[in-house]
Amino acid sequence: xxxxxxxxxxxxxxxxxxxxxxxxxxxxxxxxxxxxxxxxxxxxxxxxxxxxxxxxxxxxxxxxxxxxxxxxxxxxxxxxxxxxxxxxxxxxxxxxxxxxxxxxxxxxxxxxxxxxxxxxxxxxxxxxxxxxxxxxxxxxxxxxxxxxxxxxxxxxxxxxxxxxxxxxxxxxxx
Length: 174
Fold this sequence. Notes:
Layout: H1 13-44, H2 50-77, H3 80-100, H4 104-131, H5 138-167, H6 169-172
Helix pairs in contact: 1-4, 1-5, 2-4, 3-4
């Protein structure tokens, strides 16, 4: 395995990647909060059954699977920055709808929109990072990107667990 020191890294990498890395980190931190706490909220506050919670998360994952190829092709035809903006708008609309509804069918529909927005965001940022700064090895670029992406998701999960332990489960849902 080859050691890489700072002089061997592509120049300007952080200047070009700063915003995409920040965006994917914040998005995964937010996703960790939502995906960790949402089943608890659905069970305790909306009194959804285990089956209903499973349907909500199943619809989220199916929307991501169905949208993967079209979103990838869309990033080939449109600017990734525009698609990132569209995805943020979708997530915002879905989050507003999720906060305002208690109906199971409307909640599933809003969560599908949330899933489409999150997946479009992730794929668009993947494409943006892949196209940005082609200097250096492809493996190194992907390693940096995914370490920020998954590191934020793990940190978010740990922060939520710590907060639940600190303030107690019932207080976390208020």
